Amino acid sequence: MSDFKLLVFDWDGTLMDSEGRIVACIEAAIGDLGLPARELEEMRNIIGLGLREAIDTLYPGASETVHRQMVERYRHHYLGSGGIPTPMFDGAAETLHGLAERGYFLAVATGKGRVGLDRAMESSGVAQYFHATRCADETFSKPHPQMLLEVMDAVGAEPAETLMIGDTEYDMQMAVNAGTAALAVSYGVHAPERLMCQNPLGCIHDITEIIDWLDGLARNA
Questions:
Q1: 82-134 pLDDT tens trace
Q2: CA-CA distance, 180 to 28, in Å (whole number)?
Q3: Which one is catalytic: 12, 17, 167, 171?
Q4: Which residue among the candidates 3, 10, 118, 212 is catalytic per the annotation?
């Protein structure tokens, strides 16, 4: 086992393959409100942020009315029945089980809202593995460190004992801001070269690689 005590996972794009549904729901909300269209890459880029920060990025200077309406329409589409499936990445549940068996504390720090995360965790059957979770509607959005600091406080872990795992630059920046290490995953939203600019300890290409990666750290310590 590595020297890390706490492993903190991003959710969308790291554990769950939800990019398609998120983008479709953002696009649908924009259409509902008759706002100027945004390019696919612009919509992909805001995945990982809280909804307020995402809207500010897509529509700088948007009014409170637009914010409120966008949040309402996005949640209507995302939480509604049907739509694009959002499966866990292959091997994610098994990997979480293996990490829990090795004695790691596991947590989630996500740009999702609480209702969305609770629903996703229940449907995917992995809620029992996590000791703490924080969502963007409960505290500051990434890359602010507060979400990660609160998770560490909840399980009694120090920054030196904590590893943040995520697929976006916002995850990597949050780790830097909180003083923790980070591990990038290449199969999510942001390109590996963008992630590596934040100097994570490494980059894996499949969620199932994390156990071997951690074991390698322990062997080389």
A1: 778 999 999 999 999 999 999 999 999 999 999 999 999 999 999 999 999 99
A2: 37
A3: 12
A4: 10
Which range is least confidently modeled, 2-6, 91-95, 133-137, 211-215?
Answer: 2-6
User: Which distant-in-sequence residues (6+ apart) come within 8 Å of 151 by Cβ?
Assistant: 6, 8, 107, 108, 109, 132, 133, 134
Separation CA 164–CA 10 (nearest Å): 8
Distances, alpha carbon 3 to alpha carbons 45, 104, 109, 146, 180, in Å: 33, 10, 21, 23, 13
CA distances from 5 to 131, 155, 177, 180 (A): 12, 9, 19, 12
Listed in sequence order, the DSSP H helices in 59-134 are 64-79, 92-101, 114-124
By the 10 Å C-beta count (0-12 exposed, 13-18 middle, 19+ buried), 15 is classed as: buried
> Which of 138, 128, 139, 202 shows the shortest CA–CA distance to 165?
202
The Cα-based distances of 177 to 16, 22, 62, 138, 203 in angstroms read: 25, 26, 27, 18, 19
Q: Answer yes or no: 12 catalytic.
A: yes
pLDDT single digits (tens) 156-181 = 999 999 999 999 999 999 999 999 99
pTM score: 0.94
Query: Does the structure show a pLDDT above 90 at 60?
Result: yes
As a whole number of angstroms, the distance between CA 92 and CA 101 comes to 14
Q: How confident is the model at residue 1 (pLDDT cuts 50, 70, 90)?
A: low
How far apart, in whole angstroms, are the C-alpha atoms of residue 143 and residue 147?
Answer: 9
